[in-house]
Amino acid sequence: MGIGIALLALLGIGLVVSVFDDDDDSASTPSEPEGVVRNGAEGDDLIEGTAGTDLLSGGEGDDTLEGGASSDTLQGGAGDDLLEGNNGADRLLGEADDDVIVAGGGEDTASGGSGNDFVQGRGGNDTLNGSLGTDWVEGNDGDDSVNGGFGTDTLLGGDGADTLNGGVNNDLLIGGTVPGTPLSADDLEALRDGDESLASILNVANGAFIALPDDDAADVLNGGDGDDSLVLGAGDTGTGGTGEDTFALLAETATSENGPSTITDFNGTEDGLIVLLEQNEEEEEEDPVTIDVTNEDGNAIISVNGQPISILVGAAGQIESGDISTDNGIIVGFLDPTG
């Protein structure tokens, strides 16, 4: 038995091996209990997993890889690939070019690779990585680890108590999500094929202001290097890191049971603060909003209409109410696969 075959046996992967030629091929054996190894070639391949533990590799071309019911490994290879996990604890690797990666219902690990990637979790406590390009990485359900990498990334925690790490460059970190996600299967294909941008799918203008709901969970947001923007809801903890960072506070958290957010490293000479007001489409005029700053135990406390929404640790005396701007949403730069 060769070394490669022995390794596959140890992994519990059966020796049903498929190697495609250079055409646009497809393969599906859903009932194979031992799992399969399937390798695409230069064409645009459709490769589906089985009930077993599968290893699916796209190779060159714009491939579609779909995991089966067990814990699978999907490798996109070169080309703009679409990778979809299923119910197991899957490992999804986009690798080269601009990929669309969607984890399944298990506790998955997904990484974009060198291109500008869209990486999205579904159920489970996932680890999601953008890597090198300008990426959109979104957790959705579960307590996720959402990581940007080296590009100018947009990170969203979704529901659950998530941890977001921006990494290098100027990132946008949102503990919750934006309306309209997760995407449908048709939308995912349109995004991968470059037929539509994420902005057009969600029916908003690229660079537009978007009202953001709070996810009512305590998230941890770490900006890292660069001039980052962190959107904090109730109970969230934000650390900007190095650079001139902007902290956006959701005003609706004033009535939340989770209490105010916490900013650990606010610097009044470098960082900015925005309060995102609630929008009421049924009223032409908003109720008046009062924003106050008080100092207590060395901290600055930001309040909306008398209710604390954020504690700035060690920042007493560094900010006044007149330094805080307000808006009804935040500018989100959407991933454009055609760009």
Structure description:
There is one protein chain. This protein is mainly β and 339 residues long. The chain folds into 2 domains: 1-139, no CATH class; 152-339, Alkaline Protease, subunit P, domain 1, CATH 2.150.10. It is 6% helix and 33% strand. It has 3 helices and 30 strands. The strands form 3 sheets. A 15-stranded mixed β-sheet has the order 1-3-5-7-9-11-13-15-17-20-22-24-28-27-26, with no helix packed on it. A 13-stranded parallel β-sheet has the order 2-4-6-8-10-12-14-16-18-21-23-25-29, with helices on one face. The chain has a two-stranded antiparallel sheet with strand order 19-30. Strand 27 (299-304) and strand 28 (307-312) form a beta hairpin. The chain starts with a helix and ends in an 8-residue tail after the last strand.
Quick take:
By secondary structure, the chain is mainly β. The protein is 6% helix and 33% strand.
List keywords for this structure.
mainly beta, Alkaline Protease, subunit P, domain 1, 3 helices, elongated, disordered N terminus
Uncertain ranges = 1-16
CATH classification class of the largest domain: Mainly Beta
Q: What does the overall shape look like? A: elongated
CATH fold naming of the largest domain: Alkaline Protease, subunit P, domain 1
The rounded Rg comes to: 22 Å
Q: Give the beta-strand count.
A: 30
Tell me the β content: 25-35%
Helix amount: under 10%
Give the averaged pLDDT, no decimals. Answer: 85
Count the domains: 2
Strand order of the largest sheet: 1-3-5-7-9-11-13-15-17-20-22-24-28-27-26
CATH architecture grouping of the largest domain = 2 Solenoid
Report the biggest beta sheet as strand number plus sense, adding barrel if it closes. Answer: 15 strands, mixed
Distance between the termini: 48 Å
Structural class: mainly beta
* Total helical segments: 3
GO cellular component, one term: extracellular region
Organism: Tateyamaria omphalii
Region (Disordered): 23-90, 102-142
Subcellular location: Secreted
